[in-house]
């Protein structure tokens, strides 16, 4: 190449070279790439479809806010901070309203979507990288929730009916008096976990979002509610007249039909408090679940109680499930501040792993080798088994296979306290060590909103 060609500048770099650079950029730089010049914008647009399909390799931790920091105006309220595990640095990204610091995240998908609940307990799907956002059906449409509205139509309180308790339906009399909750308390009391069964995608020419489905595990009885694209209401997936199974976690199954085709809404596996697993078809309106795996208990004395043992379910590969029991102890004794009993905080002390295969139909104890070099991301908002994307030298800084990356999964503080350290850490299954993620210690002095794993994606 002659000197004169070199001197022509960034806009004239060969297209294949730009594409090669693009393929190697971390997500934040990808977002900025098209802003450089029209030539780069053109290359970016052409590569966009391929980029959207790229699997996110290195998750971010969305950090809690410092409640003691002086507010920096509206601008500060509208941003969120993300720690990149691979780079050990923090990105600050502007977020759409309502303010990120007022939202609780109850779901995080491998496609880059979060399910957030705002201060009125309304749920949205949010891509925190691109700012894309869509509202899910109103909380008041959950089958056991009523909204009481003021003259201006705004929700003043929610009524929570727990009359499904004995499995007899509501009948003539409510078995438990309706509980009245403030608009923001519903999200703490009811939203256990949201699972993005299928991610939204835009269809031209109207750019409307289609194809998505979100499964919501609802307390107090661990019921399953589902909302699909176009739904105006949440619908119960499990039978309201049957005894509650107390589902504690769910994971979408990898699925392809006999002809290799994919459906809009993939099947979902759910695990109950006893460790039993069922499979659901979220496409069907009222299809009963199919029993998949028998109960599974660990060595914890109170394995069925979430306070002592928190259960997560991931799919290792089609026909192979992994159940992770996260053993915990109460942590409040270590702090001067004494939480009320219902706000007890926990710290992780270890895990026990159980593998189920379709061939045996049974759970068998497993160790870290069962991950095959992948990493687990587990917490209140996520249950994901993710390949650790290594570079040519077989090295991915900051992210290691054979490790469990935990975020907090205690009963969230209603008081947005900052005196209890969130139970966030990396558990190395090889040596049992449990440490905060690299670069995160300073940011984990606060607890609200609870830190969340985010899998950055430009999709949507
Ligand atoms: Zn257990």
From TrEMBL:
Ranges where the F-box domain occurs: 7-43
Pfam families: Beta-prop_KIB1-4, F-box
Cited Gene3D superfamilies: 1.20.1280.50
Domain of life, per lineage: Eukaryota
InterPro entries, sorted: F-box-like_dom_sf, F-box_dom, KIB1-4_b-propeller
Protein name: F-box domain-containing protein
Record organism: Zea mays (Maize)
Taxon lineage: Eukaryota, Viridiplantae, Streptophyta, Embryophyta, Tracheophyta
């Amino acid at each position: 190449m002659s000197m004169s060609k070199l001197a022509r500048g960034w806009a004239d770099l060969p297209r294949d070279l730009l594409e090669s650079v693009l393929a190697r950029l971390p997500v934040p730089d990808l977002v900025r790439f098209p802003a450089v010049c029209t030539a780069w914008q053109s290359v970016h647009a052409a590569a966009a479809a391929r980029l959207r399909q790229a699997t996110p390799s290195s998750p971010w931790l969305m950090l809690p806010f410092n409640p003691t920091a002086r507010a920096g105006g509206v601008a500060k309220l509208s941003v969120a901070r993300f720690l990149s595990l691979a780079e050990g640095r923090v990105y600050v990204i502007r977020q759409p309203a309502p303010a990120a610091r007022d939202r609780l995240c109850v779901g995080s998908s491998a496609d880059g979507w979060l399910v957030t609940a705002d201060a009125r307990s309304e749920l949205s799907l949010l891509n925190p990288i691109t700012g894309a956002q869509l509202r899910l059906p109103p909380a008041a449409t959950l089958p056991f929730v009523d909204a009481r509205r003021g003259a201006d139509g705004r929700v003043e309180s929610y009524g929570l009916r727990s009359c499904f308790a004995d499995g007899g339906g509501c009948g003539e009399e409510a078995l438990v008096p309706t509980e009245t909750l403030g608009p923001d308390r519903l999200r703490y009391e009811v939203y256990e976990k949201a699972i993005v069964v299928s991610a939204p995608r835009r269809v031209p020419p109207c750019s409307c979002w289609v194809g998505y489905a979100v499964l919501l595990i609802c307390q107090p009885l661990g019921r399953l509610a589902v909302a699909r694209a176009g739904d105006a209401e949440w619908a119960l997936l499990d039978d309201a007249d049957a005894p509650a199974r107390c589902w504690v976690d769910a994971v979408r199954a990898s699925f392809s039909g006999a002809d290799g085709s994919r459906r809009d809404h993939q099947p979902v596996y759910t695990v109950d408090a006893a460790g039993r697993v069922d499979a659901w078809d979220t496409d069907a309106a009222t299809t009963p679940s199919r029993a998949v795996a028998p109960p599974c208990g660990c060595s914890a004395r109170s394995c069925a109680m979430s306070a002592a043992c928190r259960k997560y379910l991931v799919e290792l590969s089609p026909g192979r499930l992994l159940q992770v029991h996260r053993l915990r102890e109460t942590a409040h004794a270590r702090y001067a501040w004494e939480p009320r009993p219902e706000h007890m905080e926990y710290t992780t002390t270890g895990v026990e792993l159980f593998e189920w295969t379709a061939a045996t139909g049974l759970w068998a104890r497993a160790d870290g080798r069962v991950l095959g070099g992948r990493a687990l991301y587990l917490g209140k908002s996520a249950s994901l088994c993710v390949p650790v994307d290594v570079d040519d030298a077989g090295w991915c800084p900051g992210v290691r296979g054979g490790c469990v990356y935990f975020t907090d999964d205690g009963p969230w503080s209603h008081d947005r306290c900052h005196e209890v350290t969130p139970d966030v850490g990396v558990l190395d299954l090889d040596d049992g060590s449990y440490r905060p993620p690299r670069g995160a210690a300073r940011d984990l002095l606060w607890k609200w909103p609870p830190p969340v794993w985010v899998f950055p994606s430009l999709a949507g």
